[in-house]
Structure of Cupin domain-containing protein:
Amino acid sequence: MSFPFYDDPTTGYPPDVYHGETGEASAWIRPDDSPKEIEYARGGSCEYLLTGAQSGGKLGIYRWSFGEHESGPDAHFHKSIAEAFYVIEGEVNLYDGRGWKQAGAGDLLYVPEGGIHGFRGGNHARMLLMFTPGGPREDYFETLASLGRGATMTAEERVEFMLRHDTYWVD
Protein backbone atom coordinates (compact mmCIF):
# COMPACT_ATOMS: atom_id res chain seq x y z
CA MET A 1 0.00 0.00 0.00
CA SER A 2 1.32 3.44 -0.79
CA PHE A 3 0.45 6.79 0.68
CA PRO A 4 -1.98 8.42 -1.75
CA PHE A 5 -0.38 11.86 -1.47
CA TYR A 6 3.21 10.93 -2.41
CA ASP A 7 4.40 10.33 -5.96
CA ASP A 8 7.50 8.19 -5.42
CA PRO A 9 6.58 4.97 -7.27
CA THR A 10 9.53 3.08 -5.78
CA THR A 11 8.45 3.25 -2.13
CA GLY A 12 5.11 5.01 -1.81
CA TYR A 13 6.40 6.55 1.43
CA PRO A 14 6.83 10.25 2.20
CA PRO A 15 10.27 11.84 1.79
CA ASP A 16 12.86 11.12 4.48
CA VAL A 17 12.86 13.44 7.48
CA TYR A 18 15.75 11.80 9.31
CA HIS A 19 18.94 11.86 7.26
CA GLY A 20 21.39 10.09 9.58
CA GLU A 21 22.79 6.62 8.98
CA THR A 22 22.66 4.98 12.42
CA GLY A 23 19.40 6.07 14.00
CA GLU A 24 19.19 7.87 17.33
CA ALA A 25 17.84 7.42 20.84
CA SER A 26 14.98 9.91 20.64
CA ALA A 27 11.92 7.91 21.75
CA TRP A 28 10.28 8.67 25.09
CA ILE A 29 7.56 7.16 27.27
CA ARG A 30 4.72 8.99 29.00
CA PRO A 31 3.85 6.76 31.97
CA ASP A 32 0.17 5.91 32.38
CA ASP A 33 0.21 7.28 35.95
CA SER A 34 1.34 10.78 34.83
CA PRO A 35 -0.83 13.57 36.27
CA LYS A 36 -3.85 14.61 34.23
CA GLU A 37 -3.28 17.99 32.60
CA ILE A 38 -6.94 19.07 32.89
CA GLU A 39 -9.70 18.16 35.32
CA TYR A 40 -13.07 19.47 34.14
CA ALA A 41 -15.67 20.91 36.52
CA ARG A 42 -18.21 18.27 35.44
CA GLY A 43 -15.88 15.44 36.41
CA GLY A 44 -14.06 14.57 33.18
CA SER A 45 -10.41 14.99 32.33
CA CYS A 46 -8.01 15.39 29.42
CA GLU A 47 -4.49 13.98 29.33
CA TYR A 48 -1.90 15.17 26.84
CA LEU A 49 -0.38 11.91 25.63
CA LEU A 50 1.40 13.51 22.66
CA THR A 51 1.06 17.19 21.78
CA GLY A 52 1.59 18.74 18.39
CA ALA A 53 4.65 20.52 19.77
CA GLN A 54 6.15 17.24 20.98
CA SER A 55 5.63 15.57 17.58
CA GLY A 56 6.95 18.45 15.50
CA GLY A 57 3.41 19.28 14.39
CA LYS A 58 2.73 15.84 12.93
CA LEU A 59 0.22 14.42 15.42
CA GLY A 60 -1.61 15.13 18.66
CA ILE A 61 -3.03 12.38 20.91
CA TYR A 62 -5.17 13.05 23.97
CA ARG A 63 -6.96 10.72 26.39
CA TRP A 64 -10.43 12.06 27.08
CA SER A 65 -12.25 10.76 30.16
CA PHE A 66 -15.89 11.68 30.63
CA GLY A 67 -17.47 12.36 33.98
CA GLU A 68 -20.60 10.65 35.22
CA HIS A 69 -23.00 12.93 33.33
CA GLU A 70 -23.15 13.21 29.55
CA SER A 71 -21.08 15.95 27.94
CA GLY A 72 -19.37 16.72 24.65
CA PRO A 73 -19.52 19.07 21.67
CA ASP A 74 -22.32 19.37 19.15
CA ALA A 75 -21.77 18.96 15.42
CA HIS A 76 -18.79 20.89 14.04
CA PHE A 77 -15.93 20.55 11.55
CA HIS A 78 -12.30 21.56 11.07
CA LYS A 79 -10.79 22.93 7.86
CA SER A 80 -7.12 22.14 8.52
CA ILE A 81 -7.02 19.06 10.74
CA ALA A 82 -8.28 15.50 10.54
CA GLU A 83 -9.47 13.87 13.75
CA ALA A 84 -9.97 10.31 14.96
CA PHE A 85 -11.78 8.97 18.01
CA TYR A 86 -10.92 5.58 19.48
CA VAL A 87 -13.13 4.37 22.34
CA ILE A 88 -11.06 2.76 25.12
CA GLU A 89 -13.85 1.85 27.51
CA GLY A 90 -17.54 2.48 28.01
CA GLU A 91 -19.89 3.83 25.37
CA VAL A 92 -19.58 7.11 23.47
CA ASN A 93 -22.08 8.58 21.05
CA LEU A 94 -20.26 9.77 17.93
CA TYR A 95 -21.80 11.99 15.26
CA ASP A 96 -20.57 11.00 11.78
CA GLY A 97 -22.18 13.84 9.82
CA ARG A 98 -25.33 11.81 9.15
CA GLY A 99 -26.44 10.84 12.62
CA TRP A 100 -25.41 9.80 16.12
CA LYS A 101 -23.94 6.30 16.43
CA GLN A 102 -23.21 4.45 19.65
CA ALA A 103 -19.59 3.30 19.82
CA GLY A 104 -18.00 0.96 22.34
CA ALA A 105 -14.51 -0.15 23.31
CA GLY A 106 -12.42 -0.80 20.23
CA ASP A 107 -14.55 1.31 17.86
CA LEU A 108 -12.91 4.05 15.79
CA LEU A 109 -14.37 7.06 13.99
CA TYR A 110 -12.10 8.83 11.49
CA VAL A 111 -13.01 12.35 10.38
CA PRO A 112 -11.10 13.93 7.47
CA GLU A 113 -10.73 17.69 7.11
CA GLY A 114 -14.19 19.22 6.61
CA GLY A 115 -16.00 16.19 8.04
CA ILE A 116 -18.89 17.07 10.34
CA HIS A 117 -18.62 15.32 13.69
CA GLY A 118 -19.38 15.53 17.41
CA PHE A 119 -19.21 13.35 20.47
CA ARG A 120 -21.09 12.79 23.71
CA GLY A 121 -20.24 10.49 26.56
CA GLY A 122 -20.78 9.93 30.26
CA ASN A 123 -20.58 7.14 32.83
CA HIS A 124 -16.78 7.58 32.97
CA ALA A 125 -16.24 6.38 29.38
CA ARG A 126 -12.76 7.00 27.96
CA MET A 127 -11.45 7.55 24.45
CA LEU A 128 -8.43 8.74 22.53
CA LEU A 129 -8.66 11.90 20.43
CA MET A 130 -6.07 12.07 17.66
CA PHE A 131 -5.40 15.09 15.45
CA THR A 132 -3.24 15.33 12.35
CA PRO A 133 -1.44 17.53 11.81
CA GLY A 134 -0.82 18.16 15.49
CA GLY A 135 -2.21 21.64 16.04
CA PRO A 136 -2.03 23.44 19.40
CA ARG A 137 -5.21 21.92 20.88
CA GLU A 138 -4.05 22.38 24.49
CA ASP A 139 -5.20 26.04 24.63
CA TYR A 140 -8.59 24.96 23.29
CA PHE A 141 -9.05 22.29 25.98
CA GLU A 142 -7.73 24.55 28.76
CA THR A 143 -9.96 27.47 27.78
CA LEU A 144 -13.03 25.22 27.74
CA ALA A 145 -12.09 23.99 31.21
CA SER A 146 -11.80 27.56 32.50
CA LEU A 147 -15.20 28.43 31.01
CA GLY A 148 -16.67 25.43 32.83
CA ARG A 149 -15.24 26.82 36.09
CA GLY A 150 -16.87 30.23 35.61
CA ALA A 151 -14.59 32.20 33.28
CA THR A 152 -16.46 34.26 30.72
CA MET A 153 -16.01 35.21 27.11
CA THR A 154 -17.95 37.71 24.99
CA ALA A 155 -19.72 36.54 21.85
CA GLU A 156 -17.01 38.25 19.76
CA GLU A 157 -14.24 36.61 21.80
CA ARG A 158 -15.92 33.22 21.36
CA VAL A 159 -16.08 33.62 17.57
CA GLU A 160 -12.38 34.60 17.46
CA PHE A 161 -11.47 31.72 19.80
CA MET A 162 -13.26 29.13 17.65
CA LEU A 163 -11.74 30.46 14.41
CA ARG A 164 -8.25 30.46 15.99
CA HIS A 165 -8.80 26.79 16.88
CA ASP A 166 -10.20 25.74 13.49
CA THR A 167 -13.66 24.93 14.89
CA TYR A 168 -16.75 25.69 12.81
CA TRP A 169 -20.15 24.88 14.35
CA VAL A 170 -22.96 23.41 12.29
CA ASP A 171 -26.48 24.67 12.97
